[in-house]
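Q: Is it fine to ask for two folds in a single conversation?
A: Yes, each is treated on its own. Send the first.
Q: Here.
A: Result:
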Amino acid sequence: MANYAGSLLVTGQAKLFGAFQTAELRYRRPATFEAFLKSSNIMFPDFNVLKTRDDRTVEASYTKRTSRALGSARSHNHTGNHGDSAILTPSWATKADVFSMSLKQADKNLYSIQEMFNNELFNTIANFAEGLETASASFLFAGRSGANLSTVEGTYDATDKVFKVTESTNGTRFAQIIKSNMDINKYSGQLDVFCDTVAFNKFVYQMAQGQANSTNLTFQFGGLNFIHCPDLNASFAGLVGAYTKGSAIAVPIGTYGVLPWIPKQNREGVDTSVNKYSTITNPVDGLNYGVHTYETRIDGTSVGGYTQDVSTEFQISVDVAFVQAPLSVSLTTTFQAFSLI
């Protein structure tokens, strides 16, 4: 019940602990968001210094690829084109959660004021875990490439932006086809592969089919890091092709990331007469979040407190900019989507 009304000391009560309590407070670890954070460590090493306020734009320069066919002869008066560069401008969006506490709300309650605060804070952490995971998956899906150079063992659907692989003939080699397809698209090295639930389950099963099995499928999994992203289930099923047999988005590690930021007042710690700016470290993702609090006089009877009361308002926030490595070729991105049909 709201404002801890269900635990008022009007009847004999006990507190639920262990699995009974954790089941109610459960949340899913944000594996996709954590992958974005892990892949971010080579990007914008000084953006926190450059971004001095919420509304200040930060730009990053990069050099562009100039593709040319090789010539067939030497000449004494050869001429060439000049190279070029471009600008990437990350876009930060604020993610915030709020809660309130009355000074007197625990005076006639089974729970102490500290226990109430801990519960509010836990719920905020869980809300960020779920919200940032959804935001990560949405950016991943929306950013999938609109072109694919490969025509081998599959077909590219430009409408759905998906490279389609027939399960009945090549389903057990889906991972191998993803790797060779990315190689044809000129991506080498380690790949993060974000999977819907069906694809993730199939890959886990196939990885267990080793040398002791009649069919060894483990040869194809080197260099692939599989990440279960349940948000992709509805995303792929909602496309024109309604893909439900297993889908994934492969991304070269280091070509994507997320840039977290909070205002300098939070980082430095500032107190005014009624406002306090500070930080808190999120134990799930390890990031520092901005905390803003202020107090106001209230009649707290409607929120579990009492008539002459004080309400403390809390807001915890972080700004995030999801980024992917810029490509100068129209429609292409490093996020290549694959589906079994």
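Q: Second one now.
A: Result:
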Amino acid sequence: MLRMIYSATAAGAPRNYGTAIDQLQSDGEQSLQDFPKAQAGFALPEPALTAAIERWLTQRGPSTNPVVVMVHGFLYDPSQPMGPNSDSPFESVYGMPPGTQNSMSWLPLVAECDEHGGNHSENAIAFCYKSEAGIAEYGGAGWSNNYQYAVFDQAPLAARALATILFCLGSHNVTVRVLAHSLGTRTLSQAIRLLRARMPANLDRVVMLDGAEFCVDAAANFENCGFDVVNIANRSDRVLAIGAQQMCHPIRPTGSLESQVIGFDGLGTTDRWLDLQIDRQPLVNWFAAANAPDGIPYTIQAEAQDETHPFAGLDHWSCYTNDGNRALVRDLLFSDVMTVAQLKQHRVPSSVDSAAYGRFRQVAPPATPQSRMERQRLLYPTNFGGGGGG
């Protein structure tokens, strides 16, 4: 597994970035590329990054498997040391079984190893970024909570490095696929936005789980993207129902189309996009009856079946912790016949039971305030710019 770690410098809100520099590093903390915080656009890969990817592909050898880029979600910090209470993704989703509980690890899902940590192969790129912060950091950027900072600042910044990695992989003779969960779907979506004019032809499939990306952003970023997107949604997911759609108020007003997220409300099926709501009974029955293109029965469940994750009862992680869901995700990533076109041809029940479903196209994503003052005036209107005072 190739580890790519995006290390960001805390510098307040974008208007205050100045000359601050973020870095993409390898596992050994070797700097691969600088990303000036104030430069929001796409950046071509620099020689050190290109060399690191080429070395890993050479080490990987003539594998016929796709390279899978993994993108984790909220509340991770790859700089933390490993340990029982670490927030490092290498302690959980990017951890190797049996040291990491197999149902928590993504490595068996991306063919990096089997469910017990055996049969190891070089198959995955673990993309990491800090997606949590203390009050001094998110308050210094003008936000009222940690999640706003992650959604509006940390994920879009990290997306620059992810876009550069995907572009660099595009110059090599490998098939590239992506697995993203929760906030990681926003990071990926923002990377796709940066790649719109230079989409790598070898990126052919994306699987997104319980996505926290806003539907209107996804509609704009993935329009005519040129690759398959399978969006696993779950209306039983209380993290998305309660948190993702309310913690960003009033930047994205609660209940507005602009606040809805793909893992809860879907997007609306197009030629290359497919919404699969795993707590929707027709879909559960369809997979159980072996109607999928590969003829395999899948037992998909929206509710967590064990307590591996400390907040399992919120059902935000069951998409990759339950055995049946894991089998489906693995085959969606690797099976030659589990394409969007083939799934549609086999009449998969593809929609989401949301009143907003399919209404997101042509709705422009609202701009994010770029200064601390603008953010404070929105978040605290009675204290900033709301009148009164003596």
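Q: Anything structural to flag on that second result?
A: Two points. Strands lie at 2-7, 21-26, 31-36, 67-71, 124-129, 176-181, 203-209, 228-233, 273-277. The longest strand covers residues 203-209.
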